[in-house]
From TrEMBL:
Source organism: Mollisia scopiformis
BP term (GO), one: nucleotide metabolic process
CDD domains: HINT_subgroup
Reaction(s) catalysed (UniProt annotation): adenosine 5'-phosphoramidate + H2O = NH4(+) + AMP
Protein name (database record): Adenosine 5'-monophosphoramidase HNT1
Cofactor: Mg(2+)
Length: 134
């Protein structure tokens, strides 16, 4: 836990939240600045700024809880978003996953997808490099 972290304060109960789910390792609550009705956050209780800072066992329930939220909200179209670092749009320095219903083209998350041209030899080299480090 981090004393200055808003999400750690929510986990401790120092700041109220609209809790949707809680277990020993995970907390889910409604986003207070939603992009659409049902926009929720799912967080590990373990404090870590980026995904790589969180132990695997603290991540095991995250996607199953997101699935439960999708079913409970009835969202047919939705985004699951998890940002790491400021230029990747992370605002709170505690890992969190957004479940954002997309009921229509105006509400929910908007995305741009700046695809790049691929050089197949470069892609093969990249594949070998990444696989060698896993």
């Amino acid at each position: 836990m981090s004393a200055a972290c808003i999400f750690c304060k929510i986990v401790k109960g120092d700041i109220p939240s609209f809790k949707l789910f809680e277990s020993d390792k995970v907390l889910a609550f409604l986003d207070i600045n939603p992009l659409s009705k049902g926009h929720a956050l799912v967080i590990p209780k373990f404090h870590g700024e980026k995904l790589t800072d969180i132990p695997d066992d603290s991540l095991a329930e995250i996607l199953p809880v997101v699935k439960k939220l999708v079913k409970a909200t009835g969202a047919e179209n939705y985004n699951v978003l998890q940002n790491n670092g400021r230029i990747a749009h992370q605002e709170v320095d505690h890992v969190h996953f957004h479940m954002i219903p997309k009921p229509n083209s105006e509400e929910g998350m908007g995305i741009s997808w700046p695809q790049q041209k691929t050089d197949m030899d470069g892609l093969k080299a990249l594949l070998a490099d990444i696989k060698s480090k896993m």
